[in-house]
Protein 1
Amino acid sequence: MLSRRIIPCLDVRDGRVVKGVNFAGLRDAGDPAELAARYESEGADELALLDVSATTDNRATALDCVRAVRRTLGIPLTVGGGVRSVDDALRLLDAGADKIAVNSAAVSRPELIAECAARFGAQCVVVAIDARHMEGAWRVMVRSGSNASGRDAVQWAVHSQSLGAGEILLTSWDRDGTRSGYDLDLIRSVASAVSIPVIASGGAAGPEDLLRAVQCGAEAVLAASIFHDRQFQISEVKEFLRQHQVEVRL
Amino acid sequence: MNSHEVVIVRTGSANLASVQAAFDRLRIRTLVSDDPSEIDRAHLLVLPGVGAFGPAMASLERRGLVSLLQSRVKDDRPTLAICLGLQLLCEASEESPGIGGLGLISGAAQRFAADVRIPQMGWNKVEVQEARVLRSGAMYFANSYRLIDPPPGWTAAVTNYGGPFVSAIERGNVVACQFHPELSGREGLDMLWRWLEVSAEAVTC
């Protein structure tokens, strides 16, 4: 049986891991390669690295960061942040990424998903969706969560799948960094609308939240701050899930 | 070229950096190449592969590597095929109808049944008995297609995802795995090391 995955996330800015609340108020949380190695040894199933400040200027810094992480990391690495073209994706893959997460650029030009899937295969293309609860539905936020796009998050997930996405990285804009639990209704809505795996993200405060996300249909759970601060070890979270009959890799 | 060097076939769209990084961690030098003569001379060859079956076969044909890979596997020269690499050894794939594979193992790759999430993404249990390189354990998969029936003449590892499928095969010095050993942590590295050891024995005999 396929195990549910625990994915620590490194939000990286200028080569350092940072963490903020609702995409703002960033603080330093360590060296990416060091944290990556620590998470692998603690039992992480994958690692996500999101460059939250990705611009043309710091592209070289981001690539160096991916290379440094790849040298130490023996598990899959998803990299996102500022991917606007197949060439951007190719540079990250060459630097050591295994999967590419696309976000804002795909919202404004959905063909980017199809282009990446055709070139690298669906299993390589993660569509990251930042969803904000508004008027009884979820809206897709873009530009690191600063702008509403007008797209409906559930419909966008379905459309992404039809364009060739291999996975949805679903972040609750409302819960991100707040430690108030994942948005379970959002996870349930998206997971039941698509047949590709959904990674739940945004709001985890402890093992119970990860369990609930899995029970609502998430194939994988992503968390940042609860692991950075050593509040919980990945191994103890997995043990908790196993005790609740969730298949995990121990 | 050093005989202890692993040559990785540049298939155009694979995560070569991860494969290289894994061998780096084993202190094994790698050379990425699509040059037929370099690939033919290689004692240790890795055929990686992500992406689609049709374009990958077209890329092998364009680079003049098809017959070379076929005779290499038939001659039992040390070869490791990863992920799509396993499917390329088959006769065909449902992913690209009408396109022939390398035809080294019988059967065609088929898409997973619709009652599971596709792609299969993550760690799954591999089970195998009495193999030289393969071992039972959790390995990392990222695939939408798979081979169902174990090919005759090969030792097969089996994994379950909406039903059993062939997660790896080995015969002599040739190993093909649907999972990614380069992304399967310690167990993956151990598997790569065992393949290197088995292949090293092949030199001295």
Note: Chain A has ten helices and twelve strands.
Protein 2
Amino acid sequence: MSAVENPAPAPTSSGAHRLRPKRAVGRRDDTRLALLFILPALVGLLLFYFWPLVRGIWLSFTSWDILTPARFVGLANYQEMISDPVFWNAVRVTLLYVVINIGIQTVVALVLAVLMQRLSRSIVLRSLVLTPFLVSNVVAALVFLWILDFQLGIGNHFLEWLGVGRVGFFTTEAWVIPTIALVNVWRHMGYTALLLFAGLQAIPGNLYEAARVDGASEIRQFFTITLPLLRPILGLVLIISVIGSFQVFDTVAVTTGGGPVDASRVLQLYIYDNAFGQFNFGYAAALSVAMLVILMVVTVLQYRVTRAGQTDLN
Amino acid sequence: MSTAATATARGAEEARPAARPPSGTSRRRLSPGRVLAWTVMIILLIITLFPFFWMLRTALSSNSALYAEAVSLMPADANLGGFQRVFGLQETEQAIAEGGSGASIDFWRYLVNTVLVATGITVCQVFFSAMAAYAFSRLQWKGRDVVFGLFLLSLMVPVIFTLLPNFLLVRELGLIDTLLGIMLPSMFMTPFAIFFLRQFFMNVPTEVEEAALIDGAGRVRVFFTLIIPMTAGPIATVSILTYITAWNDYLWPLMVSYTDASRVLTVALGNFTEQSPQTGPDWAGLMAATLVAALPMLLLFMLFARRIVSSIGFSGIK
């Protein structure tokens, strides 16, 4: 909020004017100095954000193995994509992953956030909750590869003890995507919970007091006060999480490499395979464009549906 | 993971007064609802922390004993063999006998590479971002809002889309398989760092800056001797977040690095499953390796937990 409310430092200061008219702090123009200050950032922006955007789109209209010169092929890559079953499978698998990952993660994070708010706001608790977020996706993936190992994993021993029987978490087509989704829930739930927790702090406490006076139960308070008032923040958190979730790569690459068969070949992995496995950079670029379009559509839809950022307070 | 940084909203650092007095909660200390709530909380905490314990337990075990004692909570046949293999301190024959791949893996090298990459990225990115943030918050110039808008726009570009073209650019610069090549795309700025710092620079009272200018200090000097020291806290926060992000990055270094010369920890770990010996993976060694990769960030986190935890929030954009 503070960002919006104090836009720029007050440009004029009459006191300074009077004291040093030659070097007026007021209506000055720092253009040259400013250029110097933003130069490195601007180089980074143009070279590593905007130029790749232009180049990526251009590449998607070419056929290129990076050794011989690129050839313009028009829409050929896109035509190939539309009739490519592996691409559609990748879209399906990625969507499935996002739905499971975001669905579970949001519910668990919400529970965690409300529990933290109601039970204890200790910084130790919040730190513990955040710990998995501090390790890399790769580390998280490998630890669970071990915990859920079919033969030796403690997870499977536990399931056997429960009488459920062992599950080939990373090796069966039905389980591989839910498993990878859950690994990433583990890594991100605490972080998401802290974001939601921050949102909860903004809900006026007197609403709860009034509800309590009226005898509303905790559950009722959650559904009539917490959830509706958290919606703008929840919407933003969802948008950010979904964008991240769509780009899942690390966990899959380290644990299954896309298998069994293509059951976990998510979009990002398919893009990587095309570029670095088959040196098919044009096609990989076209796939990236498809991913960009999917992300944009999903983000706009979410924004509409959740009315993210628009508060009902006031 | 740039989403981490994107979401960590700006301006969250000022201590927020407790939103609600803890009214009534202490009186109902033992209600069944509270017991249930704590139970759920504890279960979630166990799920959160158990993998760390299991990492340590496995790393201190020996591979052969892991078969027999798959479920005991204590290390099976406790020894440091896993860590010795990770740092290449074991003879090849012994490593193979203990279930290692025998391949020479030199984690010192990867550790040093990772430290260099993360440090290089952090120092440059935070410094350049701070410079830009200063220009966007304290300098008056034409086109400021337009240019700032461009930076805002870059937040919308998904990482995936920039990876391939960035790889090609780094390749054309001849920086494939170098540490500089890994660092380059994130060295100049991230939109997040600029927004985050701009927020705090704007809160530095104008009078302080003007007083210094009146005393004859130039803008550059004001930036270094006034703005940076006065916002040391937020600068530290953004540095830590950047460092952790750089340390944990996988896909980009995987694209750029091909040999040990530029291999970082995440990439080395990712290779592990491909190097498994015939007898099955060297789990003890692998868990020792993941610990080596994770521990520095966990320690950093322990030191700065309060700062990191309180920087996560949405107070800046709600």
Note: Residues 161 and 167 of chain B are 11 Å apart (CA to CA).
Protein 3
Amino acid sequence: MKKSLWSFGTREVVFAAIGAALYGVLSYATNMLQIPGAGNVAIRPAVAIPMFFGVAFGPIVGFISGILGNIIGDLLSGYGFWPWWDLANGLMGFFPGLIYLGIKNFKDTSDILKAEGMVIVGVLVGIGVAAISELWVSGVDFATTVSMNFIPSVTTNLVNGLILVPILMVAYSAIQARSGR
Amino acid sequence: MIANFGYRPHQSILEKIDPRARWIFAFCMLFSIVLFWDLRILSVFFVITLIQFFVSKVTWQETKRAWIFILVLSSIMIFINTIITGVETVGGTIRGGTPLFSLKIPLFETFYVLTVERLWFALTQYLRIISIASLFIILPFTMDPRLYGVTFKGLGFPDKLAYTMDLAFRFIPTIARDFNVTLDAQRARGFEIDKGKMNIFQRIRRMAPLMVPVTMNSILAGEDIANAMDLRCFGLKKRSWIENLHFKTGDFVLIGFSILILVVSLYLRFGLNLGDFWMPGMS
């Protein structure tokens, strides 16, 4: 079956829902496990899920996994709704998804590097949008949003994404062979 | 781990209102609040959000975690923004001002001056953030998660997108159970999340034995679900929903009130040019 970057059929509906539920539950679970030694910066390894779902199933799946997963994670943790941060998470899944058609072999180093590149773009744009929204919503100045929102979030999300997305890609290559997709 | 939502019925008036009307209200309020820096106007919004909070019958105990999170975060942000950096957002409006406290910075041969205007600006920021927080914090505690899909469908979202939301909420218990089983299985093999001294990279990498099996199992299950849905011709016709929402008079009143707030706010801001930073003694 020919792949399309913007299709949203049954398969995309299911994987967007699974991606969102996984991101939400794993965010909540790793929150409960309290990874120590990280100071006051929240480390959410689960942020790699929307990035990986973007790479594996396309930008729309990545976007919905990120935006809806973040909403679910916040709902489970009781943090309320923060639409501009939900959007940031959506974008972190969307941009890696743009490389979806370019990934031929999930184990291949060059394909993994392509995905890593898009993870970096996704994190920079996604967190950038949220940080700029803070200028508008909270009324903080540029220096504050850069030091308080942009740098800590970009650093933790990049570290999580760059470490875990390749691991998930290699694991997925075995699944892909098994399912014949 | 039990993954459950903060929602439980509170028998409040708020829960009787159609969730679509409540979302419209929340977004009209959000877009109105962010238009203003005038403490007097923001106080009106704050009172409205406070009324909503008390009418919801949500307890402090339920929302404590969210409040602590937002209060700590906003306090740090406002402290850095107001006290340490330059408060550039409202620019010239509060440059200079009445000095309250000054401190000589030895290395740079300059003075740090805390002005009354900066403190008023900090107070305005607090009121603005707390008003937005009160709007959104109570939503998960007062809105039934089973209604999210049909709510967003009713707000004009495409069928497939609304169904994705519905499906995601249905997957949560299964994924939470899978996570528990995986965690127990890995622990039985001697896996520890926090094993002695590890740097941050090692800590993140240690999450892989938990994340990979749960994710891959879910993907395999997803292939079967997608096949089953295709066999049942998913997406060929308009979907029907188990729960149906119907607007009542009260819902129309709330929607009308929300639109009125937004229209008045836009007129005040752009028609009358009101709503810039204000403090007592300022014209």
Note: Chain A touches chain B through 72 residues (CB under 8 Å).
